[in-house]
Amino acid sequence: MGASLLPSPPFLAVFLFSLVTFSVNPEPALAITRHYKFDVMLQNVTRLCHTKSIVTVNGKFPGPRIVAREGDRLVIKVVNHVQNNISIHWHGIRQLRSGWADGPAYITQCPIQTGQSYVYNYTIVGQRGTLWWHAHISWLRSTLYGPIILLPKRGTPYPFAKPYKQVPIIFGNRL
Ligand SMILES: *[C@@H]1O[C@H](CO)[C@@H](O)[C@H](O)[C@H]1NC(C)=O
Ligand SMILES: *[C@@H]1O[C@H](CO)[C@@H](O)[C@H](O)[C@H]1NC(C)=O
Ligand SMILES: *[C@@H]1O[C@H](CO)[C@@H](O)[C@H](O)[C@H]1NC(C)=O
Ligand SMILES: [Cu+2]
Asked: Is the distance from CB of 43 to CB of 54 less than 8 angstroms?
């Protein structure tokens, strides 16, 4: 008697499928992995009529921006092409179970030596807004930095009117 009331296997399968589809994922807020490559290299940079060879990421000063959505994974390969030891700190990112991706040299990792690389791999959990990354060894942070822009999940509004445009403003020292 009881057995005859159980749904047949195909029905059960369809039911479970719709449960997963509609309850776990009510709207597509799919987290993705975003890959970046940071080539740490020398570059001649001119500011205020003054040219200097400085350590940069990808030849840019200030450095390239990282853009991610909350929930995304960032995989950032840093390759060191300069004579200095390097490490990069992702300032303000909460490293949950990924402490080895935090970046302070001699605290969570050995520095990346000349000709070597390191892959920083972490997810953005419960954070939105604009942060920054910078070198975390010696005084290299004076030229090695850039913005990290954390957008809300797709379908999640900003806690204010949606901005028409974003312009990161970074304050740094004169070269
Ligand atoms: C910077 O300029 C100097 C002098 O012109 C030049 O020798 C050097 O190769 C330049 N470095 C880069 C990375 O372009
Ligand atoms: C670079 O890092 C290595 C490994 O920690 C260390 O042995 C070496 O002294 C460092 N070089 C400089 C110039 O700090
Ligand atoms: C990043 O970390 C995740 C989770 O540990 C792992 O599955 C993935 O393979 C890693 N990716 C790289 C490129 O190291
Ligand atoms: Cu910092």
From this structure: yes
